[in-house]
Each structure stands twice: as C-alpha cells, then as structure tokens.
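Predicting holo structure, flavin-adenine dinucleotide bound.
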Amino acid sequence: MSADARRQRVVVVGAGMVGVSAALWLQESGHEVTLIDRGPPGRGASYGNAGIFATYGCIPINAPRRLIDAPSMLFDAESPLSIRWSYLPRFLPWALRFLSACRPGRVRATVEALAAILARAEDGFLPLARRAGIESLLGPAGALYVYESDESWRRDRRNRERRRAHGVAFRELDPSEVHELEPALADVVHRGVYLEDVFHLRNPHAVVDRLARAFVQWGGRLRHAEVRTIGNGLPGLLEVVVAGERIAADRVVIAAGSWSKRLLGRLAERIPLDTERGYHVVFPEAASLLRRPVAPIEGGFFMTPMEGGLRAAGTVEFAGLDAPPRPERTQALAAAARRLLPDLGEPAESWLGFRPTLPDALPAIGPLASDPRILCAFGHQHLGMTLGGITGKLIADLVDGRDPPSVDLAPFRPDRFA
Ligand SMILES: Cc1cc2nc3c(=O)[nH]c(=O)nc-3n(C[C@H](O)[C@H](O)[C@H](O)COP(=O)(O)OP(=O)(O)OC[C@H]3O[C@@H](n4cnc5c(N)ncnc54)[C@H](O)[C@@H]3O)c2cc1C
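Done. Tokens:
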C-alpha cells in the first residue's frame, strides 16, 4: 500500500458479483469496508446468468455485421436480439453509439481491451474462491459451441481467428466428435468448437452468496438498505445516504450493475449505461443431459448443467429497467433449447435479468471525472461473472494507489464518452 493509501473507509454499493469481489479485495488490502445492497447478495444479474467463466469472451456483440443484421432482428419479439417499440426513443442515442462501436477499428480496440482484462480474470476470482472454500461450485468440464449450418460456421470464422490470435485454446469438431462429447444433442449439429479449459459456475447465486458470507465472517460489514444518494459529507469525506442513516466514507465504489447510472444521477449523466435484458428457463429434470455448457451459436444462449437443473440462459432484449418480463421470450428460449435437446421435459422456473452494458461493450472501471473519490465498477455486459473478481482487484489497486494497476485501465475510463 502506498503512503497516501492509509486504511480507508470504503463503501461498496451493490452486492452482485462485482461488488462482493471488490469488497473482498478491499478487505484483503486492509480497508474498513461496508457493502450495501437493497436486497440479499447476488439477486441481481448475478443470480440467473449462464454461469460461464468465459475467459475466451473477447469478441463483443458489437460487430460490423450488426450494421446489416440488427434492423431485421431487432423488432422480432422472439429473435435472440430484440427491442420493444415503446423503448425506441430512449434507446436511440445508445444505439447510435453502439453502431459507431461496430466499425472495424473500434471492434479491434474492444477485442484487445477485453482480451487483456480477461487474461487476468482467473487471478481475480480463483484466490477469492479458494479462500472462501467454494471450489465445489466450479464445474471444470469445458464449454461447447455448436453450429447448425455451414453458413453460420463460415460467418463465425473471423471470430475464431481472433480468439486464436489472443491465445484462446479450442478444438474445431465435426458432428461425430460433438456427439461423442454430448450424446443427447439432436442430430442438427453441423460443426462444434470445444473450449476445453473453460469452467462454469454450478450455481452463480450460491457463489456470490458464499463470497458475501466470507466477507462478513472476516469482519466486513454488510448492510441491507437502498442507497438514495452519494454526496459530500463532513470536510473531505463522502456521505452515502440510506434510509435513516448517513454513512461517512473516504471512497465509494459504485457496483450497482444496471442501476448504477440511476443511482449516480447527474454525476453520471455522460455515461451511457443501458441494460441488455436476458432471460433464463430451468428444466429441473434435465441437468444430466449435458456434461458441460453448450451454446447454439445462432441462438445467443447457453444451456448449462447446474445445481437445480439445466438452465437455458441468454438472448438480448432492449426495453429498459422497468418494463415487465415478456413471456414470448422465455417461450422462444425454451423452444430453441428443445430443438437441440428434445428430452428436456417441462421448464419449472423462468427469470429476467439486467446486464449492465455500455455501447462499446467495455465496463467502466475507475474514478469518476467529477469526483475521483467515487470509483465506478459497472457495465460488465455479458461477462460480469467472469470479470467481477479482476474488477474487484483493480478497484483495490486504485484505492491502494498501486500505479500502474495490474491491467491498463485506459480503455475502461468512465469518462471515455464525455
Ligand atoms: C441471461 C444472462 C446470462 C449471462 N451469462 C453470463 C455468463 O455466462 N458469464 C458471465 O460472465 N456473465 C454472464 N452474464 C452477465 C452477468 O450476469 C452480469 O454482467 C453480472 O452479473 C453483473 O454483475 P454486477 O455485480 O455488476 O450487477 P448485479 O449482479 O446486477 O448486482 C447489482 C446489485 O446492486 C444492487 N443495487 C442497485 N441499486 C442499488 C441501490 N440504490 N442501493 C443498494 N443496492 C443497489 C442490486 O440490488 C444488485 O444486487 C449473464 C447475464 C444474463 C442476464
């Protein structure tokens, strides 16, 4: 810890994967940490995701092809990517920035930045998992992408090349090799990509919950309250206002996922955070059908064997934070899963979650330009379970004044959109 990084009072807002990890790394650095969430830990986006520790995930959903594909997909309620008409006016400014980030040069920069942080993802998560004794919640059987047509196989060639160029190890499989790995898959598979080194979380909610319990066990303070505002308090200090109390802090970490912009109000007006809503359905009888997570590349979702059943999770809907879930989307998800696994049985649970996403698909990690005592840790889009741990470690680097931090933070600056 540098000279100016004495033991500080740090408040972390949001007990999802990102906030809990930040709280643990800050605690490890010796700070006095209060973690606040309006609900129990891990009940936001970190609850119902696909659970893939996707260290290979350096290809953003921004892609030059989106400029061609998006208009036709967006308005189909059952498509893997959709938008509600009523949300269109609020969505447009974000969409324009998104499309601008789909230009080839920008995509290259995004891939570089994601690959660099993903390369450190295990260093950020596995030490926490070991210390908290939750290794049994990790499923180390790899992950499999399946392609149902030669067209989709050819279309994805550039992405496979990019992954390889960034050191991602995988094997290309023909249909018989796919079926050897996953005999229950229907006969619709044209090719496969097997990522042998990938592991998954067998219960993402339990992972976050157990990490939060470890934080409390080691002396951390967990508060159950809605944070209303963050502002100036006593001279030199920040003040976090929750119902009935004002909590003084030297530093505040905003890890409130998709709600971070709402929480920061005017302080974040230039940060174009939106949410990519995603769904899951769980088939309780079907966990043993797959040995590892399988993703049909055209479908935009994963089928992950988990505690409690086989979870089909994914797809993207733009409709903001307040619109109710749309049953057509979970029905379409269940039908798409059944095409690959006809013996799934009936789904027993469905869920809507809110991925926090910035238009260039990179998270915001670092100080707010308007008040550097407030640190952003949000916007992890499809990769928050994978990047939560390393983000937490980077936040501790920043609070401790470690320079340079363990990953170059320039691409993740919260003020890059100003
Ligand atoms: C369908 C789906 C599948 C996914 N699959 C994967 C995957 O396979 N691998 C992967 O790495 N990622 C995946 N993701 C993405 C991942 O789930 C998210 O990026 C990640 O959970 C974000 O974590 P977070 O901590 O930033 O946010 P959250 O988990 O949403 O946590 C934010 C917390 O802040 C709290 N909060 C908000 N406002 C306030 C306030 N004012 N006061 C107090 N508390 C507040 C909320 O209650 C919440 O608990 C998936 C997401 C979805 C939706």
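The chain has a mean pLDDT of 94.
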